[in-house]
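Lab notebook, page 48
Experiment: co-folding of the full assembly
Goal: obtain a model of how the components sit together before planning crosslinking
Operator: M.T.
Materials (sequences as entered):
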Amino acid sequence: MVRSNISTVINRSLVPVVNIVFLGLLLVAVTGQSQAAEWASLKGRFVFDGEPPAPVEITADKDVEVCGKHKLVNEELVVSDDKGIANVVLFVRSKGVTVHPDLEDGSKSDPLVLDNKDCRFQPHVGFVQTGQTLTIKNSDPVGHNSNIATMKNSPSNSLVPSNGSSDVTFSRDEAIPASVTCNIHPWMKAYLVIRPNPYGVVTAADGSFEIENLPVGEELEFQLWHEKGGYLDEFTLGGKKTSAKRGRIDFTVEEGGTDLGDIVVDGKVFN
Amino acid sequence: MNNVIACRSVTSTLVRTKTSNVLAVLCGICIPFLAAGCGQTPAASFRLNLVESSKQRLTSSQEQQVATILTALFGTPDEPLAPPEIGLDGAKLKLAAGPVRSDIVGRKNGLYREHCAHCHGVTGDGMGPTAAFLNPYPRDYRPGVFKFKSTERADKPTHDDLVMVLRNGLAGSSMPSFALLSDAKIEALAEYVKYLSIRGEVELALMRAYFELDDEDQGVLPQSREFLFEEIIDPVSEMWAVADDAVIDVPDMPSGLDMVASIAKGKELFYGNKANCVKCHGVSGLGDGQANDYDDWNKVVFQAHKTVEGAAEQAGKASTWEMSAEERDEYRGELAWLDRFETVLDGNALRPRTIRPRNLRQGVYRGGMRPLDLYYRIHAGINGAPMPAAKGTVPPEEIWDIVNYIRSLPYDFNGTLGADRPMVARDRM
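Observation: model returned without errors.
Model output:
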């Protein structure tokens, strides 16, 4: 009895939903394109509030003769001398975002290179658009493998021999950053943020970021993520305490670009 | 005697359901049976994937929604349904599902519960009553990941791959051969395994979808056909639909191959930095290289334990007197979630075990000992296990060299072959 009711609900709601979604898409497409004739960038810098913990050293117990030479540290939280937070991810979550015509097709963008270098992944966190090529390289004299734990895309795990490389593309976006690990060297870990649009960035070593070519005047929902801090939901922005539920926050880029200045995150968030 | 067993299973259901409001509904069904002296066992039900729902911090009403959608789409263990779009054979499912019974003389239904459920569980979660005593643990079908198959690493197994495992069993594990069953019965069971996998994958996708909802959805998944099929079901069923045509194209072993040279080449590759087999399978080939890694099924539980421990440590450091009323509520919510997650891990997951790379000196290979089976394992890697794919890195003729070397490992090989020099099986290690 219960079952038949539910399947009716599923069937009945089909037609109106399709119509509404379709109309909605049309509206977005029409109004969006006429609006965003201009493009500008959003920039800012993530700053650590408090005394950052000292980096924890990793003892390489595999391929010691090669990996033991490098001073390896745990890279979950990397804070620069002037307290910039590296590897914070910021991306546009809004599905209807107007995308710059040159950036629509991810396959036309330069590949993101993920290098196995000095027995660590470089970069530690990477941003890729669906369709864009991810090139996994190995600059080390020892062999690695790159085990990419995606949820919606087929997970992959390829051998990457010394000086070898392999290419991967993702057809679906992932809500949660996908981890990349090397089964041969268990301390190695990286993350990939895979999104359906080009608007995402990973903060540099000094905590700064810039997303270019965003549509001017469009209110966009962004999401903030950090490996250790999770979805950053509390920070100080422009001197004001700001909360962003599940790391989601709206910004509108103004003509000529918007500089958010320092986004200060309480160090306790990363405990 | 029957009454005792029935009573026991009812009590264990009660204990298990303590953790979930969804399953708590079942208690309502169980209690009358208790009162009636356990004259009848309750109808079998699918267990919710509570480890995932705890990980995703779903509320009890969200768990209820997942359970409702799953029942609408897939029915119950006694009456399985499958949306026609998925392309499963309803007649086969009927033969495999339900309690063990006979409706026509000579025909037996309920094959899954007769032959499989005691290890793999009614839900196919790999947690039947005997599971905890087996090493390796029985396969949990719900992530839809299978190890021994003829397709690329991330692809689903073909129907024939599943049939082969049922027919031959998995050497070196507790999975027996079901070769004594008729073809029709094996077909039905393979279909039912696919059904449980697809159901489990859809369940995971539903639970993960809450995270992506917008605020205006208020924590409720859309129940439109469009959402359910396009976002949740199609990505799963498409993978299964293409598997049968995605068998790896294996070139023949080069004809007139110099076997001694091939074995020597294979040995070089085994220890070399390109194929890198030695890193996990060890210098001696005994499987003692990398001993502290987990397979994907155990890793989920291992990481869940780590999450709980980490969060508990953080919670222990917090001082409630410094908190505002709102923060205190949030903190209490966090403690409640932690407490529940711990209980869930105790009752709904097996203790995580590390995975052992295969001991290649024994000549026992789970997925079959034919050269072709070994070729598939090396080419595609083993899905769900740390074993990576050599595809694209090691060319086919070199994969054959490694196969030949691997096949020489269980024997003392002094470098020459011939009728007067038989390879001698080593003592078992």
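Interpretation: Chain B touches chain A through 45 residues (CB under 8 Å).
Next step: discuss with group before ordering constructs.
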